[in-house]
Every structure is written in C-alpha cells, then in structure tokens.
Amino acid sequence: MPKLTEKEYIVKAAKLYGLEKVEIDALIKHLDGKQINAFIVRRCGSLYRLYEIYKSEDYNEHIKPGKDGLINLNDYSFEKSKKRLDDSKIGEFWILSSNLDAYLATKVTNMHSQIESKFIDISAKNNFLLPQIAKQMSLDATVYYKGKYTNEDGTISTHHLTKNFLYDEEALIQGNSIVKDNPNKKRIHLDALLEETDKYIRRHYKKYDLPKEELEKARIEIRQGLIKQTVFNKIVFNENEGNSKWGLIKQEDNRLRLAPLFSYDYCAGAEPIGKTHHRTVR
Q: Phi and psi dihedrals of 248, rounded to 5?
C-alpha cells in the first residue's frame, strides 16, 4: 500500500488526534499554502514528529500484541491524543501511533470502580475472554489487550487497550441518545428498545434523504444485531445492559450500522454496586 503524502498524513492524523473542524480547515489552508498559520503548526507539532517517523525506512510496524498477548508501548512511537472523552464512561485517553493506529486506553476495573471488590479480577479477565466467545458466535466485538508503558522514572503504567472501531469520519451514537434509561426502573423491554431504535433509524435516513433500500437494509441488520447482542448478554450473564452500553455508528456517508460489543465489565458473575439494568423479553 503506497504511503500517504505529507498532507494526507497530517490531515488524517489531526482528525484522529481530536482537532476541531475549524482547526482542520485552517490546517488544510496552511498545507495548501493559502494561509500560513504558525499556531496550527505548533498545535500539530507532535503529528509532524510522527510523520517524520512514518516516512523513514525503519518506522515501526502496526501496534500489535506480542506472543504473551501484551502490548509493550515502549516499542512504538505514539502520541497521546487530545480527542475528548468527556462523554465516555469507559475510556481514559486515545493513543495515536506513527502508523495512525488509534487505540483507546480504557478504564481498568479497580477498587474505585462501581463493582464489589471480590469481583475485580473476574471483571478484568472478562475483557479478554468474552470478546473471543462473541466472535465464535459471529458477533462483531471489540477486542482488548493488556498494555504497559515504562515511564522515565522506571514506574510502569498498565492499561487495557482496544483498537478504534470507528473509521475516518465516523461517529459513535450511544444508545442512551436513542433510548432514554429510566433511573427508577431496572428493566429495559427489548421490544420497546427495538421499536425506539427503529424510529430513530427512520428519522435519520429521512433527514439525510438516503435511499429507501438502504433504510430497509439498516433496519433489518441493526434489529437482528441488537437481538443477537441481547442473546449474548444473557449467555454471559451481563449484569448491566444499560443503554450507554451499546450504540450505532454514523458512517461518513451518513448511513448507520450497529456498533460492536464493547462492554464486558459486569459479566460472568461480576456484579456492579447499585442498580443494574437488564433487557427483558415480553
């Protein structure tokens, strides 16, 4: 695969890095020589550093785990992204490698998590085991790896890393933006969830004037996917099926698809502290 040009690389990296649209527009004008912008150059300094590594002959391979399933981040050149995670309940930060691999460092279950202490180890292991089971069931699922980084002072930081499942211009629409959780009720009726999701899909495709056949395709695939995810949740005894635990992906062409499974913390006997949400079938 041919390497990206400097402009292609820097613009793509800037989007993954979390720059706002106005900054992206200013960056493109700068790269085209139409409006030199020293501030944007400083803002993207780390991205230019990654580009220098990317275009060299010995730039690192794509981030991947070793034989022990561990990702040693010291083996890779990366930057911590400025992409905001204000609305994320699972992520701490993004890292961006010189190959433009984007990985999310998730919040590792610990004594400060909303889970009983006796279930912490089970919860942590769920993130590595359950995605493999999901894939055996032909379900799209995020896969997590253990990552570590040795700091300059010799201390070691550990994280759970998962590769970004969003492509360039895609956005995650969390389920609680589609179907509102009732804080006073622990049960989420699957039929109602499917109905509200279907209404959302219809409104979305009408808003963007997308072809009817594409609407029908999305409705069927997302409905079937939500049912399969619900079956999986029951098999692994998922104790929290709240609407923040699933989502739809808005693609670059505005079409919708179901996001992969990404929440495994409260499964296989690991119980959260406080109220839980379960999907029920009428």
A: -110, 155
What is 205-274 written as a DSSP string? HHHTT--HHHHHHHHHHHHHHHHHHHHHHHHTT-S---GGG-EEEE-TTS-EEEPPB---TT-TT-PBSS
Domain limits of the chain? 6-80, 171-280
What is the per-residue pLDDT across 163-182, written as a single tens digit (0 to 9) for each?
888 876 788 898 989 988 77
CA nearest neighbour of 104 among 126, 121, 127: 127
- What's the 3-state SS for 11-33? HHHHHHHCCCHHHHHHHHHHHCC
Residue type, 205: Y
Give the closest residue to 201 by CA, choosing from 230, 179, 182.
179
- Residue 160 vs residues 192, 200, 225, 275: alpha-carbon distances, Å: 34, 32, 26, 25
Show the beta-strand stretches assigned E in 81-141.
Answer: 91-97, 102-106
DSSP 141: B
Parallel, antiparallel, or unpaired for β 247-250 and 256-258?
antiparallel
Q: pTM of this prediction? A: 0.80
